[in-house]
Amino acid sequence: MDETDDWVTVARSLTPTEAHLWGECLRAAGLEVMVADANLVQTHSLIGVAVGGVRVMVPASQADEAQAVLEAFHRGDFSLPEDEPPQ
User: Fold this and answer.
1) pLDDT category of residue 80 using cuts at 50, 70 and 90
2) pLDDT in tens, 7-42
3) Which of 2, 37, 66, 68 has its CA 20 to 30 A from that of 21?
4) pLDDT for 35-54, tens place per residue?
5) β-strands 54-59, 7-13: how paired?
6) 30-34 CB contacts, 8 Å cutoff, 24+ apart
7) How far apart are CA 76 and CA 72, in angstroms?
């Protein structure tokens, strides 16, 4: 990350758990991540909508890559195969 790089929001969620899941997915892809407002939304869930939910943020220089990773996540590219039932 360049020291002049600003942090940008690449995703928002009203559920802190979901935002952390996305953040860890981005970290696993080698990106720097900050999850903002998770504690506020967890503690005061009714305020979550007013503050725009939990923000998943990355350096601006990594935003395009982060969007691509999140799109792959939502498509199910990282899903594990279903277990076959025992026979």
Assistant:
1) confident
2) 999 999 999 999 999 999 999 999 999 999 999 999
3) 2
4) 999 999 999 888 889 999 99
5) antiparallel
6) 31/58, 31/62, 31/65, 31/66, 31/69, 32/1, 32/58, 32/59, 32/62, 33/57, 33/58, 33/66, 34/7, 34/58
7) 6
